[in-house]
């Protein structure tokens, strides 16, 4: 049953992505709203992305800014990278679990309210 465990572990370690990243899970905001902010910062340098997020008037900017800063801190502390050379290589928002609530409607009926959550991932990389 446990055949080639060392080889498989070594292959996983070699194919592992060593770029600095950060993930925020269960953010109580629709991924549709978060993606509009992520589209703006994708491909930008770290400093430019932080400036854009501070200037933008969207509710999704606050959690995205926290994730970008966390990824930069991971790069600086864990991988000894300089924040000035980083850029946003990848960023995406996946849908998390949906909270289902009920709202009273006419004639004793109920309507379902879907409160969506998102998982925000930001991957940084050093500029070449």
UniProtKB/TrEMBL annotation:
Domain of life: Bacteria
GO BP of this protein: translation
Annotated keywords: Ribonucleoprotein, Ribosomal protein, RNA-binding, rRNA-binding
UniProt xrefs under Gene3D superfamilies: Ribosomal protein L22/L17
CDD domains with a match to the protein in the record: Ribosomal_L22
GO molecular function annotation: rRNA binding; structural constituent of ribosome
Any one GO CC term of the record: cytosolic large ribosomal subunit
Record-linked InterPro entries: Ribosomal_uL22, Ribosomal_uL22_bac/chlpt-type, Ribosomal_uL22_bac/org-type, Ribosomal_uL22_CS, Ribosomal_uL22_sf
Subunit structure: Part of the 50S ribosomal subunit.
Role this protein plays: This protein binds specifically to 23S rRNA; its binding is stimulated by other ribosomal proteins, e.g. L4, L17, and L20. It is important during the early stages of 50S assembly. It makes multiple contacts with different domains of the 23S rRNA in the assembled 50S subunit and ribosome.
Similarity section: Belongs to the universal ribosomal protein uL22 family.
Name recorded for this polypeptide: Large ribosomal subunit protein uL22
Originating organism: Candidatus Stercoripulliclostridium pullicola
Annotated gene: rplV
